Amino acid sequence: MTDESTIMPTDFIREAVAEDLKSGRFNYVRTRLPPEPNGYLHIGHVKAFMIDYLIAKENNGELILRFDDTNPVKEDVEYVDAIMEDARWLGIQWVKVTYASDYFGLLYEWAVKLVKLGKAYVDDQSPEEVSANRGTFTEPGKESPYRNRPVEENLDLLERMKNGEFPDGSRVLRAKIDMAHPNLNMRDPVMYRIIHEPPHHRTGSKWKIYPMYDWAHGQNDSMEGVTHSLCSLEYRDHRPLYEWFPEQLGVFKPRQIEFARLNLNYTVMSKRKLRRLVEEKRVSGWDDPRMPTLRAMRRRGYPAEAIVEFVRRMGISTVATSNSGVIADVAFLEECVRDDLNKRSLRRMAVIKPLKVVIDNYPENQIEEMDAVNNPEDPNAGTRKVPFSKVLYIEQDDFRETPPPKYYRLFPGNEVRLRYAYFIKCASVVKNDKGEIAEVHCTYDPATRGGDAPDGRKVKSTIHWVSAAHARPAEFRLYDHLFTKEDPEEGEDDFLNCLNPNSLQIAHGYVEPLLASTEAGDRFQFERQGYFCADPDSVPGRPVFNLTVSLKDTWAKIEKKR
RNA sequence: UGGGGAUUGGUGCAACGGCAGCACGCUACGCUCUGGACGUAGAAAUCGGGGUUCGAAUCCCUGAUCCCCAGCCA
């Protein structure tokens, strides 16, 4: 069997969509992305975005980007641009951008229709009364005393609500369903509430009533001819309502399908918590590279393709472990990032924590140009020249005065290879007043130029280096998880209690000369260390590099086990 | 407590009545001018209890556990 079903990626949503097409329930596919413009996009949003985008695309359908701007007190234009920017960065394409507010007029007409049908009424109860009369999980609610007022009166009151004749909170329009329904969403849900201030970011002060999510969202789907309304698990309980409205109205009925949202360990995802991190200055902003927002990941150097691939590899299900979704291991995300970057990153040498090395038998003032491979995974990336001289910097971690077992790097008497250059052997160590190692003296073997010994002898280790005379200073920002616990909320009265004090470490070191003219956003692999991305804070002559993700480090693992 | 959803190695997903598989992680080993990449091998799971069936992760019954819902938020 080699038909489409075996080669197409399959999951329960794609299967459902295919079925709907086959059965004739729909003869086209249209999905919608319904972000509320009240915050920046984070990695959790990417899953929903990709599902909506790809399922439309795979079926020759359309994706509509519709901002769910039904609550002026929470929303702002600032976010609509940011959301579009992030979505575009992911490669998502839509046929048009709409706003829930585009449909306020039609939606109001539909509400009037529902009132005329006797399916909606104006309730004069206070918010407290509405809440008190909703009942509980185990007890039915009480019907509002205003529930059965005449259609004409409802029409009049609704009209006057719309015209701003009543203060906020004084009345609402409610669907007339069933106050004893076991699903609380069906206990006469509120359709419209009165909000005078602030003005709406698109409709200004025209409207004094604003639709609730359940009323607006589903009807907007219907109005736009959306076939599949794909959303997260917590909306499962809203589905009966989602279907009830168009049923009463006799309008087009889209199909809602729910899936598990995506959460990440060692971080938090809720807008409220992310906002606290920013406002309490625990991070430098929404784009602090430690944040799970897309702008932060972009700044840190995560390629959009890697994020998309991560989400794809995670799959789709209806499993809910936490917060209506599944918790992905950040190590998996990081592996997707490495996998992507490994194939396309130019290699460079950078010394993050420098240690001076003097090659005693190397001629003073001599400079050689060594050929270095730009990317062993990509022959087309070519080579470059790297200057070599008598005094170098190597990584502090690459030298030990007394080596632990299995340590192959530089130590007194041991020979290692300087990448793309010579074999060197450690002869002696010079210490400062405090007894710290100030410099290491070595001898080199001129016959090993280029990295191989003619006599065939081997070294167990190759280390990176930068020529001191040619080195350019650089700042390195090394990141770790923002929180010390996989689930920062678990067992804490405040999630900030388990902030990782070492989530950002700043180091000052050196890079090879080529890197002096780096531009923000440029990505490299610093050999043996990790992938780095030039930060916008870089200034000419002093680049700043963000650690995107480190290389896997077998030695660190061996050492840690002790 | 009422309603809704779920439960497969440590994690995330497959297997849709017929040999429990894939990826990440983990453990060895090999290869290597990156202790990276790559390659080989390995450990590791069907929530429990009943039943139906030649045969059950899959169907039925039952129990447990986890997630979501009582906004005029979305």
| Count of discrete alpha- or pi-helical segments spanning 4 or more residues | 14
Q: Are there runs of 5+ residues with pLDDT below 50, and where?
A: 1-7
Roughly how many Å is the radius of gyration?
31 Å
- Counting DSSP E segments of at least 2 residues, the number of strands comes to 27
Sheet/helix structural class: alpha/beta
| Percent helix | 25-40%
Please tell me what the overall shape is: elongated
Strand numbers in spatial order across the main sheet: 12-25-26-27-23-24-13
Task: State the distance separating the first and last CA atoms.
Answer: 53 Å
Overall pLDDT score: 96
What composes the largest sheet?
A: 7 strands, mixed
Beta-strand content: 15-25%
Written overview of the protein:
- By secondary structure, this protein is α/β, with parallel strands linked by helices.
- The chain contains 14 helices and 27 strands.
- It has a 7-stranded mixed sheet with strand order 12-25-26-27-23-24-13.
- A hairpin with a 4-residue loop joins strand 18 and strand 19.
- Helix 8 crosses helix 9 and helix 12 crosses helix 13.
- The protein is elongated, with a radius of gyration of 31 Å.
- It starts with a helix and ends with a helix.
- Mean pLDDT is 96; it is low at 1-7.
- The chain binds one RNA strand of 74 nucleotides through helix 6, strand 6, helix 8, strand 11 and helix 13.
